[in-house]
Amino acid sequence: MMRLKFLIIILSTGILIGCINTKIVGQPKSSGNPIFQGWYADPEGIVYNGEYWIFPTYSASYENQVFLDAFSSKDLVNWKKHVSILDTSKVKWAKEAMWAPSSIQKDNKYYLFFSANDIQSPEGPWWNPEKDIENEIGGIGIGIADKPEGPYKDYLGKPLINNIYNKAQPIDQFVFKDVDGTFYIFYGGWGHCNLGVLNEKFTGFVPWEDGTMFKEMTPKGYIEGPFVFLRNDKYYFMWSEGSWTDDSYKVAYATADKITGPYERIGTILELDKDVATGAGHNSVINVPGIDKWYMIYHRRPIPNEGRDHRVTCIDKLEFDDNGLIKEVKMTFEGVMGFRITPE
User: Fold this and answer.
1) Angle at Cα 273 formed by Cα 271 and Cα 278, nearest 5°?
2) CATH code where residue 147 lies
3) Assigned domain for 119 exists
4) CA–CA separation, 265 vs 219, rounded Å?
5) How crowded is residue 268: how many other Cβ atoms within 10 Å of its Cβ?
6) Residue 344 — very low, low, confident or very high, per pLDDT cuts 50/70/90?
7) Structurally, how many domains does the chain consist of?
8) Beta bridge partners of 256
9) Would residue 29 count as lying in a domain?
10) Cβ neighbours of residue 322 under 8 Å, at least 6 residues apart?
């Protein structure tokens, strides 16, 4: 009788353990935050060929920012690193401070817009006549490749935008394809944002009606990091406020009925949470193709933060209320649940 009871106990325990193990294996995985290892900031997310892609800035001292990496995933959980898809050896005019890549596909080619050299001007807030060079080569350039992961080469052999227009430093570029096929570029630091229309070959710009190349589009509170997306015929214009070097960094947004505005500022949707992280900003947005599912991609500073360049790339849900306004984005350690894109 004792042997029988002992056998029953062993069998019951085995069944229980088996059930527990089955439940654990069957649970969907989350991305976790940060979503990949390393110091990375200014992430731009996009979907190519049924995969999620993120193109970030390598967060380090300016002289060490001489390359750009990329990351891809089929499910938002498992990320593959693509090392040095573009670097200063391929872009002879770029020497440092390669920042904020923006990726777009056109005519079976992949274009990677980036800024380099952190050029300064007497018009800007950080001009130092003892070390800065007026009319220095730098600004916004373009890489071109046959695949999202590259390798990229310098498309123009020179910057696309080298000068200061409307007091906007040529950094933090974002390229947007509108519903009519027109490609626009939003860019700008130093608290100013410009909008331009790219020409057919991405070699220059189509002038506005008044003959100027760039229209200033600076909303109240804007510092840098513009990003735009379209949902339900409404344009959402997002940007970063505060200082990228401290806890004041945050994300705000505005909406408009046309890509060119006018934009109405709505408010702040992402900022520090002292229980999770600080310095949250310079975001982008990914929409799962064909469905109303959205993600916020952004960088933040871990707690404790031990250095200016200690920034990590994270993902959290982006949700809307019944009026189409963006709900406050809650930073998490869990990130989002894994989600594969269904082939069209």
Assistant:
1) 70
2) 2.115.10.20
3) yes
4) 7
5) 15
6) low
7) 1
8) 235
9) no
10) none
Q: Which of 228, 110, 216, 212 is nearest to 178 (CA)?
A: 228
Q: Identify the CA nearest to 118 among candidates 131, 90, 137.
A: 137
CA nearest neighbour of 39 among 333, 301, 315, 311: 311
Other CB atoms within 10 A of residue 211 CB: 6
What's the count of helices (H) and strands (E) in the chain, helices before strands?
1, 20
Question: Is residue 208 one of the residues assigned to a domain?
Answer: yes
Domain boundaries, position 285:
38-317
The count of residues in the chain is 344
328: in domain: no
Residues near 4 by beta carbon (within 8 Å), at least 6 away in sequence: none
Both tokens of 166, joined, read 């409307």
CA 77 to CA 177: how far, in whole Å? 28
Report how far apart, in Å, the C-alpha atoms of 133 and of each of 83, 96, 116, 136, 138 are: 32, 15, 15, 6, 11
pLDDT in tens, 304-339: 998 999 999 999 999 999 999 999 999 999 999 999
Q: What amino acid positions are annotated as catalytic residues?
A: 42, 224
The model's pLDDT over 224-235, given as tens digits with 9 standing for 90+, comes to 999 999 999 999
Q: How far is CA 73 from CA 67, 258, 339, in A?
A: 21, 32, 10
Instruction: Return the minimum-mean-pLDDT range out of 15-19, 32-36, 256-260.
Output: 15-19
Beta strands in the chain, from DSSP E residues, in sequence order: 40-48, 51-58, 67-73, 79-87, 99-106, 109-116, 139-145, 153-154, 174-177, 183-187, 194-198, 205-206, 215-216, 224-231, 234-241, 250-256, 264-270, 277-287, 294-302, 312-317
DSSP code, position 336:
-
